[in-house]
Amino acid sequence: MHYIFEHPYFLLLMPLVLCLIYCKKIHQKSYLPRLDWIPRKNRLFNLQTLLKVAIFTLFILALASPISYDAITPSQKYGRDIVLALDTSGSMRESGFSKKEVDKSKFELLQELAANFIDKRVSDNIGVVAFGTFAFSASPVTYDHESLKELLSMLEVEIAGKNTAIGDAIAQSILTLSYAKAKEKIIILITDGINNAGSTSIKDALTEAKKQHIKIYTIGLGSTKDYDQKLLSHIASETFAKDFSAKDALSLKAVYEEIDTLLPSSIRSEQYMHKKALFIFPLLLATVLLFWLLMREREII
User: Fold this and answer.
1) β-pairing verdict for 2-5 and 214-221
2) For residue 35, is it within any domain?
3) Number of Cβ within a 10 Å radius of residue 29
4) Residue 176 to residue 243: CA distance in whole angstroms
5) Which domain does 273 fall in, by range?
6) How many independent structural domains does the chain possess?
7) How far is CA 211 from CA 77, 174, 215, 235, in A?
8) pTM as predicted
9) Which tens digits make up the pLDDT trace of 196-227?
10) N or C: which end of the chain has fewer CB within 10 A?
């Protein structure tokens, strides 16, 4: 068990404690003919000072928010490394993929569902590859899911050209995963078109994926006439994964949920995941001492 302060900068107030001890009070001068009339308060004054110092110190400690935590570092446990390979070809501009949101394009709905999927992957490092006529890494594999979703929202249709280069998409996804450290690496490839561009053959891309033990889950969007269902099924089976078909936004959401079930996300081992807040203890003690101090001063008056 380890102990630290979440807000240690509040400890900079600690030197002010010295003012309670050494700062002089301004007393009104009085003259008495007999010294034995002056009440002896030296001992009580010292006790009051100690109480004030203790109360002030305890309040500062409470503000600094002490916590206890288990000494577990993120490097001791990895989730999966996942790359979302998203088709940004011209056909993704089509609307009507959702019956509820008819005006939204196929790609806009894909972005929203992909962002929701990212939120559920608590322990996974995720990257994004966009592909059209060519493929590029929109984001490296990262655990910073908020930044990842921000980059995802910035992608646009035809950002990588109008055509569909599935071989390049797989090759670029493998390259993106090569910088990751998890033992289990996965590509989720989503497209609504037929492979008609790129410099990397499907065969070569699959050979490299199998060599690195990377599973490729494929999702075909729209009617099975719009995309090469046999190719997507072949890609998934060759890498011991699974292929899916999503004719509309509702079925695509169901596909994401099924993939999420197939790849359950365990809780990531963070250093402060099992932390316990301790500020309540100095706060309660300071409150009790403050109440006691007020009662004693009231008795003196």
Assistant:
1) unpaired
2) no
3) 4
4) 22
5) 1-14+42-73+269-301
6) 2
7) 24, 11, 11, 14
8) 0.65
9) 999 999 999 999 999 999 999 999 999 888 89
10) C
